[in-house]
Thiamine-phosphate synthase (Pseudosulfitobacter koreensis), 198 residues
Amino acid sequence: MKLDRFYPIFDSPEWLERTLPLGVKLVQLRIKDRPEDEVRPMVAQAQALCRHHGAVLVVNDHWRLAIEHGCDWVHLGQEDLDEADLPAIRRAGINVGISTHDHAELDRALSLGPDYVALGPVYPTILKQMKWQQQGLARVTEWKRLIGDLPLVAIGGMSVARAAGAFQAGADIVSAVTDITLNTDPEARVRDWIEVTR
């Protein structure tokens, strides 16, 4: 299944309610530091919204809930890989995207047969404190060469203006977070994203 080239990440179903009607077709629900019982209804709501709008939902980290609600995708960070039951995820028919930041992490990800690989932060990001410096577009090109036909997601400090450069460097998909959520007009920003990625 071919994934859309625009991949926003949100921390609540409310954001999906706002952006899916605008034409978002691939979206990640990323909820950190909340107990599973609180996240469960949010995953259920997000999955229902995505089904209604014909969009693909990617559940960050909460793979048990993804299985429970019949989701098609989970995204796992390197720390999540330590805890996740990949055979169970695969038995449920769920696709897996994996975050990478250096060659060791890429080797580990590729050994697990991911359905996409994410590289970040391509640019400096304010989303979370990271031990990694910005990767830059040259690293995007290198990663694409190393992973071949696997979809490559560029994440970290991405903006509408930077999207074209990421695609030219080899990214198949560009992911955005704060460029939308901190924008004074998030809906207009989403429309801009859709325009530059399709």
About this structure: Strands lie at 6-10, 26-29, 56-60, 73-76, 95-100, 116-119, 152-154, 173-176.
